[in-house]
Amino acid sequence: PICPNGSDSCQVSLGDLFDRAVKLSHYIHSLSAEMFNEFDERYAQGRGFIAKAINSCHTSTLTTPEDKEQAQQIHHEDLLNVVLSVLRSWNDPLLHLVSEVQRIKEAPDTILWKAMEIEEQNKRLLEGMEKIVGRVHPGDIGNEVYSTWSGLPSLQLADEDSRLFAFYNLLHCLRRDSHKIDNYLKLLKCRLIHDSNC
Amino acid sequence: NGQPPGKPEIIRCRSPEKETFTCWWKPSSDGGLPTNYTLFYKKEREKSYNECPDYKSGGPNSCYFDQKHTSIWTIYNVTVKATNDLGSNTSAPYYVDVAYIVEPDPPVNLTLEWVDQAYAKYLLLNWASPPLADVRSGWLTLEYELRIKPEEGQEWEIIFVGLGTKYQLFSLNSGVKYVVQVRCRTDNGEWSQWSSESYIQLPKEFRLKD
Amino acid sequence: NGQPPGKPEIIRCRSPEKETFTCWWKPSSDGGLPTNYTLFYKKEREKSYNECPDYKSGGPNSCYFDQKHTSIWTIYNVTVKATNDLGSNTSAPYYVDVAYIVEPDPPVNLTLEWVDQAYAKYLLLNWASPPLADVRSGWLTLEYELRIKPEEGQEWEIIFVGLGTKYQLFSLNSGVKYVVQVRCRTDNGEWSQWSSESYIQLPKEFRLKD
Fold first, then answer.
1. B124 to chain A nearest CA, in Å?
2. Fewer beta carbons within 10 Å, N or C terminal of chain A?
């Protein structure tokens, strides 16, 4: 039974919070990767979008660890804040992605369903991360730093090639950032819960 | 005349897919007077209680928490209060962690096939995850358990299968009619109900390789 | 006489542990003259190209990027240039993000043990993650898949195991010699090669409950 001795000490353990956060971040990344691959196969073949997608994620202004050494040297409080910042930066674009995907010609339901599921689960993961940060550093709900997104007009361009590139780029950045979040959370979990001995 | 109501009790909470959940309560004596029930809940560190958002969807004596009201990051403290003209009585608090009350629907489409090949003879079982969980594989990781017994037999033999949705069963007795069921659970949740029964009559004469 | 070289092509890039990576190219015609190859790369946000840091470690026609030269979640634009006395020819650019080219080495130390206890008989499989992979810190998370068949059999049975590095296999055919292999992958990346084969001869007579 949970909470054997009543409600004051009764809370989800930090280990359980991290387990659920990692399971959710893994799930969000696999959905994002599937959605990107599906869109790439269906709409981007032979259009050379990858070359234009270089250095155009709205979150590239955020300083994030780019290799294992950087990720292991950063203080866990800063890495938690990086995760929060990247997650917050995606609230707005995910909201618009769901409505704009419906306007893509013959957009398969599977892409639309994934966009809705990711938007829903991203909010849920953000709720969990705020809980984790509050537990690891009581009183601190993390800095409010995040990147604003101004890509909505490009998702609504009349020219189809430009509009499809805007979607390609957004899904490419989503795959990348959801992979970062998943990776950082797995590092944090091993560091804070398993003493770096997963 | 009449009495204040007896103390009700929250008896069970269940989530089918870690996205929503329902709690049920058991009324006690109503003291011979019309009695109504109010369910209250609060999350960790919350000072004040909130009232049940939906008394209808889960059927009688129940409260249904939709996605907006369901969080996997907190423990819920749930109580129910019985009130009639002569007073009221509140249940003991019932604590809920949504991740631990997940009880998926049973697996579906259980099929049985007797495979008779040169090097091996076995019963091949195939099934599918419950529809609700299927779409969210990865978020709802299901593991399975099957049980089998001769139709006339009393004792089930239970076999833990793990993540897969098919299984090969070797050491069975020829000529027997077997009944099989399968169930599932999420990593730290409750076992689902057993699936509906499937039957297969094994051929009379086969010899395992001597 | 002779000709300028044909256009070479970057054919593959692979990282075994998301910390380093190697790219390979395929030469084209050398125009009948001695031809040498130079690989250039440019990372996102970098204006100018850099030359390959190590042509040796990855074998012929390859470039190896050690940890110092490897960034994750960054697009590398990689090209290779063939040059001989009569001219040069540069490949089309090959874009790669190291996060998505991880193909781990196979798991190691696969051991098989037949467990014969009163309540259950099963084959216990144990293995270890590939040595290069830093699973301990959480930098790499591996999931596993195993395959098993009777030594004489044709058809492998593939079982997805998930995150663990041990597995219990219940339903096997007594008296049969089985061969088993295991492989791994990370975050929806490429599966590794299968591990080397392990064999086990199951005891002849064990009857599950009659």
1. 31
2. N
